[in-house]
Amino acid sequence: GLKVKIEKTLAYRIDLEKIKKEVIGKDEVWIKSHLAENPNIKEVQVDFWPFWVKKVPRIEKKVKIKLDII
């Protein structure tokens, strides 16, 4: 007989550039609800700086997205 064991970790590819374009000018509530629709995203954390900023900047190069893969 033949016994084969294959182990491979599969990861869904997240398009960070697409997400960056989608969130420009949006607020935290919109971002969290929009990204929560993707079943491959477990958690979303939004941090604005400085503290008085309430929306993502409209200038794309000022938007930084960090992806933590666990």
Principal-axis shape equals elongated
Approximate strand percentage:
under 5%
Number of helices: 2
Over the alpha carbons, how many angstroms does the gyration radius reach? 17 Å
What is the terminal-to-terminal distance?
A: 37 Å
How would you classify the helix and strand content by structural class? mainly alpha
Q: What series of H and E elements makes up the topology?
A: HH
Would you tell me the overall average pLDDT?
Answer: 85
Number of strands: 0
Multimer state: single chain
The biggest beta sheet reads: none
Portion of residues within helices: 10-25%
Low-confidence stretches: none
Describe this structure in words.
This protein is mostly helical and 70 residues long. The termini are far apart. The longest helix is centred in the middle third of the chain and has 9 residues, at 28-36. The chain has two helices and no strands. Helices cover 24% and strands 0% of the residues. The mean pLDDT is 85.
